[in-house]
Amino acid sequence: METDFDLLARQALDAYGLGDAQISFIQHSENITYRVQAKRTYLLRLHHPLTPEMGTHGQNPAVIESEIAWLDALKRARLPVQAAIRNRAGQFVTPLERDSIPLNASLLTWLDGFDYTREFETEDTVRQIGNLVGRLHQHASHWRLPRKFTRPQRDMESFRCSLDTLRPAVNDGRIAYSDFYQFETVLETLQESLILLRKTRQTYGLLHGDLHKGNFIYNDPQIAIIDFSLSAFGPYLLDLAIALSDTREEFRPILLEEYQNNMKMPANWQTLVEGLYLASMIGTFSFWINSPEAQETLVRRVPFIAQEYAARFNYNERFWFEKGVE
After folding, report:
1. 56 pLDDT more than 90
2. β-strand pairing of 32-37 with 22-28
3. In this structure, are 171 and 253 located in the same domain?
4. What is the C-alpha to C-alpha distance for residues 138 and 141, in angstroms, rounded to an integer?
5. Same domain? 71 vs 165
6. CA–CA separation, 128 vs 122, rounded Å?
7. Is the separation of the CB atoms in 142 and 74 below 8 Å?
8. Which CATH number characterizes residue 249's domain?
9. Given pLDDT bands bounded at 50, 70 and 90, which one contains residue 324?
10. Is the pTM of the predicted complex or chain greater than 0.90?
């Protein structure tokens, strides 16, 4: 039986002349996504997050159009990303309504391949990822933003907002106060380090925002990047931190070497990378806080990250890098 989102997907596809296409639900995360099979294969996105903590930027067509503008620029720069498709009215964003509430849809080309999982990880794939992330940031550091370009910020204010969403879980016992305190201290320390980071086009700009393995596609032997829904303005090292966190320890030097072929590292980068990784984990926990399916993982992962990583960071101990070597 079709759900109301399935019906909305059909309605959106009518706007692209694809009303008779076959659709299959993929997942509901920051968007609701469908695989669309017609003469070609597409990805349909309904910009409706699973939880409010994932952001409300999908409600604003201008923000989605800005994401698509960057995708188009990256595509023209020969980076392996998806391309957006215009609807019959010539627009990239298709407006819909659900229960009288506006909801937006967009359609992207489909990238063939497999979800990039640990079984595909080799020196070559990690080298490609380091190169791609470096090229992504290099492009952003030189790209002239179009007029009215708008994307969210991933900065200290956003990190603190994510932390604040965890407070109800402290009150009801899902998160121990001692673990929450470690996260608070991490953000205080990170703020001090970010203040010292000179904000230039080489250190701060457009980033992907969610570069874990699930947002890479493996089409032997090539790697491509997908899902720019959480792209934002922030320190480039945030992307690097997320990518490193989802890379085997023995392969991390390879990723870093390739990245540095495209981007110069700022002073104190290792401390910043570790601190930004922890900030990204606070954001991940905030996504999980109101998701019933994620509660078991939340309760298990929070103390591990707080005690094994955050506590060491707060004692000025490195957990990924050798202290004193920058």
Report:
1. no
2. antiparallel
3. yes
4. 5
5. no
6. 10
7. no
8. 3.90.1200.10
9. low
10. yes
